[in-house]
Amino acid sequence: MTDRRYKETIHTDNNQYEYTAVTHDENKVRVYTLKNGLKVFLAQNFDAPRIQTFIPVRTGSNNDPADNTGLAHYLEHMMFKGTSKLGTQNWEKEKVLLDQISTLFEEHKAERDSEKKKEIYKKIDEVSQEASQYAIANEYDKAISSLGASGTNAHTWFDETVYKNNIPNNELEKWLKVEKDRFSEIVLRLFHTELESVYEEFNRAQDNDTRLVNYELMAALFPTHPNGQQTTLGNPEHLKNPSMQAIHKYFDEYYVPNNYAMVLVGDLNFEETIQLVDQYFGTLPYKELPKKTPIVEEPITKIVKKTVKSPTTPRVQLAWRTDSYGTREAMLADVLANILSNRGEAGLLDLHINQTQKMLWAQAFSVGLKQYGYFSIVAVPKETQTLEEATEMVLEEIELVKRGDFPDWMLPAIINDFKLQRMKGLETSEGLATTLYDIYIKGRSWEQELNEMDEYASFTKEDIINFANAFFKDNYIVINKEKGVNERLIRVENPGITPIKINRDTQSEFLKEILSEKTEDIQPEFINYQKEITTDEAKGKKLSFVRNKYNDMAQVHFIFPFGSDNDRELGISTQLLQYLGTHDLSPEDLKKEFFKIGVSNNFKTSNNQLLISLSGLEENIEKGISLLQNWMYNVQPNQEIYQQFVGTVLENRQAMKRDKNRIMTALINYTKLGSTSRFTDVISKEELEGSKAEVFTDRMKLLFKYPYQVFFYGKDFERFKGYIGQYIEEESLQMPEARQYPEPATGGNVYFTDYDMVQMEMSKIGKGDLVNPSHFGKINVFNEYFGRGLSSIVFQEIRESKSLAYSAYVSYAANAELKHPDYITTYIGTQPDKLMIAVDTMNELMNELPEVPIQFENAKNAALKQIASTRVIRNNIFFNTLNLKKLGIYHDFRKDIYEEIQSLTFEDIKKFYQTEIKPVHFNTAIIGKKENLNMEAVGKMGTFTELNLEDIFGH
Q1: Dist. CA 405–CA 565, nearest whole Å
Q2: Exposure letters 477-502 (e unless 16+ CB within 10 A, then b)
Q3: pLDDT number for residue 494
Q4: What angle separates helix 328-340 from helix 387-402, to the nearest 10 degrees?
Q5: Nearest Cα to Cα of residue 603 among 573, 582, 626, 623
Q6: Residue 611, number of CB atoms within 10 A of its CB
Q7: Residue 201, number of CB atoms within 10 A of its CB
Q8: How far apart are CA 354 and CA 344, in angstroms?
Q9: Three-state SS annotation for 737-806
Q10: What is the percent of the chain with per-residue pLDDT over 70, rounded to a whole number?
Q11: Burial of 583 by CB count in 10 Å (0-12 exposed, 13-18 middle, 19+ buried)?
Q12: For 716-750, b where at least 16 C-beta lie within 10 A, e where not — what string?
């Protein structure tokens, strides 16, 4: 091993705080450790006057007690409920009642008689009612959103619970004050309503096909380790029988400063920031962590096969257990996965299976966890193939790796791609902060992480072959996901929770204090697009340029002002191109050549635009353009490949019709636009089968004769202008007229599609007036105040007060183009026996806009702070202008929105609601199991029509 380039060094700042840094680190990350053991990761990024914050706690579902699985995840939810200072009107009185509820939950957990359990739950519901009169729902979110925060969220996984916010940098101290309070204690208020929300999240997971397979896979890979024996959402019996005492114990044991970190990346001053963090978090006491006995899995010595069933398309997943993240074995497994499947689509599975269309799809990947990990392959066979045949096909590709039957150039190309992806990943505040919290969770140093690329680069082809032969034995798991009825779905009875008081008109003293503390406002910066975008011309084509100030990456985009509305076969043509080569380059060769030079290509067809993009190191962009045009000008039609392609397209269409999320998307589209829309106007099976490959390849050959413009994002525009002219030919073709699709009125129709699932999902869609940009400020504040987010009226009422759904929202979506209508959408996903109560609640809210002045002011100020601290950067500078042009706007319209919001009153929002939303008539989309549908209630909502899959997909 050569000397490591990156070495950890110790320094002391001007205030005598010691920190570590790493030599040659371009991000100049500092890692402080406070006296109580709190690790503080700081780095600067001046893209915007904001700071990406993460508080990663080194605990997750793997530390759940065996009789209280799901506890870490539930605790994460409760961390948003406030403390003895935040979220309460009278803590002394509230605490007495919360202690009673805690005792009742212990009785409920211990009781075995089901009827007696129901009686105890009724008592819990009664006392919770009484306690709720002192609680103030969502005060944490109100406090955080008042700062202008965005991305407020958290997640729990095996070994981590991570709390997230992106804040304006002038609000750092207030954010620290709120978070210090949150991490000092946990108060389990509004407990039983949140419990129902967590159960709804569990129900959503039951309807999630990927989770179904993953649970079975992990259980087989890890028969004794919590990685496989405890899911993050937990056992349903444990969820229904929680222990508040156990949650308090868990918090006290694991939420200690020596077991979590503070990650702050953005526009910050190192020395001022560490002083503030120490001021607030340095006082929290260090505490020894519980002693854990490591669980060591026995080696897997045979092939273990399992079967699961669901309505979706069959697939098979194979997995081999690996060593932990950062180990040599885990890194070799990562390289191996990329030899089979990589971003350049030049891996063995990419070329031998996906490119040749031998199966619908196959992909390899590796996952590194804190303890252990796994290498996996997913394969989706064609309808004429069995899962066993799919398994054999991917195993054959593994045998090629074991024999070293892969090209010598592939390994260095993979390592180069790793380096490019790291470069791109670390250039944003969020990307760098994510990497920093991840190494903290996994117990690695920043020095180790930075040296990782050199370790990858040290691997030889011989290393890979030797590893593959030692690693791939009959020591793997096979999960056969068959099409069928999932007999393991758990359907539960609605416990009958009485709606609680959420006291949205009141504020705790702590929140008042936060709101009254004034900070110096960040002044918004609005961009002068004409100044930031350099334009020129080459052979009659407009060239636009934005300078990349961050790294050596570049992008070139060919932007055609027409799309599928102009030519419905355009999308199919670009898809078919991926399977075809030229006279001298096979399609496999083309993939390899792009991957060798580290340039990726992308074709994106929308209704009114075709975007062809190349991205990679700036020094190789010209090679990429040359390769792209050689491919498109000289593409060779191949009828046999075309027929295979058609078969793949048709099978993928069938697969879409088995996927719940795709079905819901199609149903919503039908509910919004009716039977004739872009979504349903697909090229028919007969048209596809009766066509010739030349019909589609000729389109590609002629494409550069049509009008288009070029956008270059990089450093050297002069050099780009010097060569781009030779790749531009004279414009000789005009784009075809666009087809106009109807946008019918909505109202009075209920459309239903049957699907075997635990939940019911319902969405109402209403057609509004034509888009009016002068409303954009009102729309922004309305959505924040009423319809979306943790402190919105809808979320508070449906989830917090009545515990009717895990997910519920109302969204006003402005159209992206002039002369087209806006749409208002409502959504609820819940248990069938709760659906109609949830619908009634939503209707009540929509009937008359609730007036909560405090909440309105918070929503308004949050919107202003977000605009003031956001900056338009990178290639968004150019693409924003394309989007604004569709609205007839040629300047930074955020300025108009900001000024509109500044003078906005609740009366303005109310008037907007009365004129733009209340008169709207809605159609309704419902998906679920038909036997669970309350037909009497549905009949009151409008004319009921059951739609089949052909109706909503158009094929």
Answers
A1: 45
A2: bbbbbeeeebeeeeeeeebebebbbb
A3: 64
A4: 110
A5: 573
A6: 18
A7: 18
A8: 13
A9: CCCCCCCCCCCCEEEEEECCCCCEEEEEEEEEEECCHHHHHHHHHHHHHHHCCCCCHHHHHHHHHCCCCC
A10: 99
A11: exposed
A12: bbeebeeebeebbeeeeeeeeeeeebebeebeebb
CA atoms within 13 A on the CB side of 178: 32
Q: Please give the C-alpha separations between residue 927 and each of 751, 827, 939, in angstroms, as whole numbers.
A: 9, 12, 15
Task: Look up residue 135 and give its DSSP letter.
Answer: B
Q: Residue 694 in 3-state DSSP? A: helix
What backbone torsions phi and psi does residue 685 show, to the nearest 5 degrees? -55, -45
Amino acid 207: pLDDT = 86
The Cβ of residue 384 has, within 10 Å, a number of other Cβ atoms equal to: 8
- Kindly give, in sequence order, each residue whose CB lies less than 8 Å from that of residue 799, ignoring residues fewer than 6 positions away: 193, 197, 805, 806, 808
Q: How far apart are CA 782 and CA 784, in angstroms?
A: 5
> Residue 900: pLDDT above 60?
yes
Paired tokens of 335: 């390289």
User: Which residues is 760 bridged to in the sheet?
Assistant: 830
Taking the alpha carbons at both ends of the chain, their separation in whole angstroms is: 59
Q: Is the pLDDT of residue 799 over 50?
A: yes
Cα 137 to Cα 507: distance, rounded to the nearest angstrom: 10
Decide if 58 contacts 441 (C-beta within 8 A): yes
The residue written with tokens 């009921």 in the block is 944
- Among the listed residues 78, 150, 146, the one whose alpha carbon sits nearest the alpha carbon of residue 855: 146
Q: Is 907 exposed, middle or buried (0-12, 13-18, 19+ CB in 10 A)?
A: exposed
Q: State how far the Cα of 436 lies from the Cα of 427, in Å rounded to an integer.
A: 13
CB contact at 8 A, 875 and 530 = no
* Beta-ladder partners of 18: 12
**Structural contact between residues 165 and 149, judged by C-beta atoms closer than 8 angstroms:** yes
User: For the segment 391-400, what is each residue's pLDDT rounded down to a tens digit?
Assistant: 999 999 999 9
Sorted by sequence, the CB contacts under 8 Å of residue 412 that are 6+ apart come out as: none
pLDDT at 1 over 80: no
Reported as a single tens digit per residue, the pLDDT across 37-46 is: 999 999 999 9
